[in-house]
């Protein structure tokens, strides 16, 4: 009986930790501008919950309990810092409203925290890791895994970024116009980067990041809740949901890689497609186009195949042309070349690839995969085999390697 | 920066090598080397013979100790190495993840010690 209770308590702690982690860290760090101490204080509180809740029962308001305990721990941490440096005002601030807010609802400051994580003075490569850690509570080892960085190194990089936040005067606030679009874009990029590790059009299902895609969707949902009128936030969510809908179709029963054009639409999740379409329609209604809405629109055309049985490449090409104007990233250029090839024939698609900077694509797997495919369609087998080799050598996923080896012949 | 990718094979992969790799795996290795060379990161590489061919020598209290087999008694054994010239450890890890050896065994990434070369501990001439 007590075993079951204990298990339930643990599950409650896990759930509260997951749902409240970001809210608690955000609230604590907005007051002190010290992300690292806020995280430490909250983990102390969670450890304390693990010892107290099974004995005393789960408190009526678990989040408030964690907040109270974390705040007490944070005062200790700050007091400790005080010995070495004077941060008296912080301590005063913490003490002042320590009693009054505890029981009441505390404000959701996660948006400020997201903007801090994606601040322009922080290395862009660290935006996503910081978000995953501070808003979702993932540990450095897990984040390092996803980013292919040794856990210790990832821990050090996160630590350095937090020092910068504390000492670099990065404001904990929501940016105002005219900075908002650019700053918001950095936040969206950070979320999409997490998703991109879990879902990559060419590389198929990547085991490293499978649940990272879910975490990214969660983050986008949080963001939409906080900024319900931003079209690009809704565009990003639509994009990720469209991609996520195809996850079950991307591998055969034998683990074989199946490219989008050969996927069976019956295996797509219509629930997710419907939700994606809902968000995309809402975003378009705001009549403020942007990169993520355009990418979502491209995926939406692909999803149409479930209904019409064909892919409207002319529509996809149009969206790619608009997308290239706002975001000429390498991946967009490759997608554009592939769309050109489908709409106007492989030689025009190849001409787009030929015009790209060879230096920039020498390590970029999708370039070589598309190039190989187009050369093969043009009946140039020797050059195609060469390009296939490059694509295979640059691929990480074994299933993708096997798929390309088979195509290469 | 130069890094060594130390490629550890499982017994199964050594066995595969002994019986000639199946085509797909060999194809993946060939493509991988091609990509390394074309990306201009390749410095050198070699494969080691199967573990059974190893002999380990120690000198203890002036006496020679020779034993059959490899130094470390582990399931996965060193099967070969690749030396890369890349800008950072991040790039080296990317290449390690693409290595066909990573999906069957393991690939250990280690920076080469530049001071060894400078102090003449290796066969290369001082600069």
Q: Given the structure, what is the number of helices of chain A? A: 21
Number of E-state strands of chain A: 2
Largest beta-sheet details of chain B: 4 strands, antiparallel
In what range is the share of β-strand residues of chain B?
25-35%
| Domain tally of chain B | 1
Helix content of chain B: 25-40%
Low-confidence stretches of chain B: none
CATH topology of chain B: Alpha-Beta Plaits
Mind telling me the C-alpha Rg of chain A?
A: 24 Å
Radius of gyration of chain B: 17 Å
Element pattern of chain B in H and E: EHHEEEEHHEH
- Give the termini separation of chain B: 16 Å
Largest β-sheet summary of chain A: 2 strands, antiparallel
| Overall mean pLDDT of chain B | 88
- How are the strands ordered across the major sheet of chain A? 1-2
Described by the principal axes of the CA atoms, the overall outline of chain A is: elongated
Spell out the helices and strands of chain A N to C: HHHHHHHHHHEEHHHHHHHHHHH
Account of the protein in words:
The complex is a heterodimer of chains A (409) and B (127). Helix content of chain A is 73%, strand content 1%. By secondary structure, chain A is mainly alpha-helical. Chain A folds into three domains: 2-108; 111-168 and 176-331, no CATH class; 332-409, Tetratricopeptide repeat domain (Serine Threonine Protein Phosphatase 5, Tetratricopeptide repeat, Alpha Horseshoe), CATH 1.25.40. In chain A, strand 1 and strand 2 form a beta hairpin. In chain A, helix 19 packs antiparallel against helix 20 (381-394). The longest helix of chain A has 31 residues, at 2-32. Chain A is elongated. Chain A starts with a helix and ends with a helix. Chain B is an alpha+beta fold and 127 residues long. Chain B has one domain (2-118): 2-Layer Sandwich (Alpha-Beta Plaits), CATH 3.30.70. Helix content of chain B is 35%, strand content 32%. Chain B contains five helices and six strands, in the order E-H-H-E-E-E-E-H-H-E-H. Chain B has helices at 11-18, 23-38, 89-98, 100-104, 114-118; strands spanning 2-9, 42-47, 55-60, 63-68, 77-85, 106-111. In chain B, strands 2-5-1-6 form a four-stranded antiparallel sheet. Chain B has a two-stranded antiparallel ribbon with strand order 3-4. In chain B, a hairpin with a 2-residue loop joins strand 3 (55-60) and strand 4 (63-68).
């Amino acid at each position: 009986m007590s075993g079951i209770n204990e298990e339930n308590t643990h599950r409650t702690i896990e759930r509260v930790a997951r749902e409240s982690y970001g809210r608690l860290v955000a609230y604590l760090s907005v007051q002190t501008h010290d992300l690292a101490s806020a995280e430490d204080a909250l983990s102390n509180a969670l450890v304390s919950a693990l010892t107290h809740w099974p004995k005393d029962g789960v408190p009526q308001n678990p989040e408030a309990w964690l907040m109270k305990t974390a705040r007490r721990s944070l005062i200790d941490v700050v007091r400790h810092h005080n010995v070495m440096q004077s941060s008296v005002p912080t301590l005063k601030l913490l003490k002042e409203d320590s009693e009054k807010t505890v029981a009441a609802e505390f404000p959701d400051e996660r948006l400020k925290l997201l903007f801090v994580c994606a601040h322009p003075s922080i290395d862009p490569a660290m935006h996503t890791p910081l978000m995953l850690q501070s808003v979702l509570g993932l540990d450095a080892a897990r984040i390092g895994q996803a980013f292919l960085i040794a856990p210790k190194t990832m821990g050090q990089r996160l630590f350095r970024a937090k020092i910068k936040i504390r000492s670099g005067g990065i404001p904990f606030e929501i940016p105002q116009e005219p900075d908002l679009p650019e700053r918001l874009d950095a936040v969206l990029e950070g979320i999409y980067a997490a998703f991109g590790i879990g879902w990559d059009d060419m590389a198929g299902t990547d085991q490293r990041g499978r649940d990272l895609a879910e975490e990214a969707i969660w983050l986008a949902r949080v963001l939409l809740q906080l900024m319900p009128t931003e079209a690009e936030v809704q565009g990003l969510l639509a994009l990720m949901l469209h991609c996520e809908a195809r996850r079950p179709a991307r591998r055969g029963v034998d683990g074989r890689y199946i490219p989008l054009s050969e996927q069976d639409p019956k295996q797509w999740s219509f629930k997710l497609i419907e939700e994606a379409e809902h968000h995309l329609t809402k975003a378009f209604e705001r009549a403020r186009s942007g990169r993520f809405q355009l990418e979502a629109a491209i995926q939406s055309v692909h999803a149409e195949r479930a209904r019409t049985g064909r892919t409207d490449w002319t529509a996809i090409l149009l969206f790619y042309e608009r997308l290239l104007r706002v975001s000429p990233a390498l991946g967009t250029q490759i997608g554009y070349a592939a769309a050109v090839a489908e709409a106007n024939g492989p030689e025009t698609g190849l001409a787009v690839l030929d015009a790209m900077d060879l230096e920039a694509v020498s390590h970029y797997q999708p370039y070589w995969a598309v190039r190989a495919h187009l050369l093969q369609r043009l009946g140039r087998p020797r050059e195609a085999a060469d390009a296939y080799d490059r694509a295979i050598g640059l691929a990480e996923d074994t299933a993708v390697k096997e798929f390309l080896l088979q195509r290469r012949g | 920066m130069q890094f060594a990718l130390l490629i550890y094979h499982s017994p199964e992969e050594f066995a595969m090598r002994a019986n000639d790799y199946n085509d797909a795996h060999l194809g993946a290795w060939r493509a991988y080397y091609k990509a390394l060379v074309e990306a201009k990161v390749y410095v050198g590489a070699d494969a080691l013979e199967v573990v059974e061919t190893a002999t380990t020598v120690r000198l203890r209290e002036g006496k020679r100790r020779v034993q059959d087999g490899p130094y470390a008694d582990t399931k996965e054994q060193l099967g070969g190495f690749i030396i890369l010239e890349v800008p950072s450890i991040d790039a080296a890890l990317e290449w390690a993840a693409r290595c066909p050896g990573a999906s069957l065994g393991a690939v250990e990434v280690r920076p080469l010690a530049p001071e060894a070369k400078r102090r003449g501990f290796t066969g290369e001439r001082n600069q």
